[in-house]
Design a protein that fits this description.
CATH architecture: 3-Layer(aba) Sandwich
Structural class: alpha/beta
Oligomer: single chain
CATH topology: Rossmann fold
Number of strands: 6
Number of helices: 10
Shape: globular
CATH class: Alpha Beta
Bound molecules: adenosine-5'-diphosphate, magnesium ion
Largest sheet: 6 strands, parallel
Strand order of the largest sheet: 3-2-4-1-5-6
Distance between the termini: 12 Å
Number of domains: 1
Length: 222
């Protein structure tokens, strides 16, 4: 089953939020999901401790450099979608996780500073591709976006597209419900209503489907 690695050297880019949102949507749609929390700050583990884990989700905590590859492989083989959350750094742990990915997702706020640091994730992926002599599919998702796009956002998106980077549509909007994962635990369907829940659910589900399509295409190709 697919291994999805969420990676960006930029802290606060929305990695852990994207991981939880994606995993809970895939589990709701019927997939078994295993989260690997490889961030010493343990954001995902904190989310897991807030409430009962939703059905079909399991959490592995404190995955370190020495055991990341075997942990990913073990859970990859047990039939679950593996989602790996990482610290916002470039490290050997991050590179090892990337080396095992079927898809790397780089969440990125649409500001020049965030994009400048975020695209360094693409260099890390390129290094692993070179070392392993295989293509590692990767995509960027804009996070915390607003309904009205800034010129900066449009410019960054165009520049990524010009470089041939896959940009996931839809982006993840800035929403109270998405930041509330870490307050309430669980998923969007179990948390108390935060702002416009129907909008949040629609955004989350369309994003998860866009990710799923990228995985299915690979499986067909493989
Ligand atoms: N789409 C979003 N809407 C609202 N708040 C968000 C969204 N994505 C992230 N946040 C908030 O931004 C902060 C950083 O997000 P986080 O997922 O922890 O980033 P990272 O894991 O990359 O450090 C957190 O407070 C989180 O709740
Ligand atoms: Mg995080």
């Amino acid at each position: 089953m697919p291994v999805i690695v969420i990676a960006s050297p930029k802290g606060g880019a929305g990695k852990s939020t994207t991981a939880v949102l994606l995993g809970t949507e895939l589990a709701y749609a019927g997939a078994n999901v295993t989260f690997l929390d490889c961030d010493p700050n343990r954001s995902l583990t904190l989310w897991a401790e807030r409430a009962d884990l939703p059905k079909r989700i399991s959490m592995i905590t404190n995955v370190e450099e020495a055991d990341v590859i075997k942990t990913i492989r073990r859970h990859d083989q047990d039939g679950s979608v593996v989602i790996v959350d990482l610290e916002g750094v470039a490290s050997r742990l991050v590179s090892r996780a990337i080396s095992q990915a079927d898809l790397v997702i780089t969440p990125m706020r649409a500001t020049t500073l965030d994009a400048t640091i975020g695209v360094r994730a693409l260099s890390l992926i390129a290094e692993e591709e070179e070392a392993l002599n295989r293509t590692i599919p990767h995509a960027v998702v804009f996070t915390m976006t607003r309904a009205i796009r800034s010129k900066q956002h449009k410019g960054i998106k165009q520049s990524l597209k010009n470089q041939g980077v896959d940009v996931i549509k839809p982006s993840l909007m800035e929403r109270a419900a998405f930041s509330a994962f870490f307050e309430f635990g669980g998923d969007l369907r179990t948390m108390p209503a935060q702002g416009r829940m129907d909008g949040a659910l629609e955004n989350a589900s369309a994003f998860a489907q866009a990710v799923y399509r990228r995985l299915s295409v690979q499986e067909v190709v493989a």
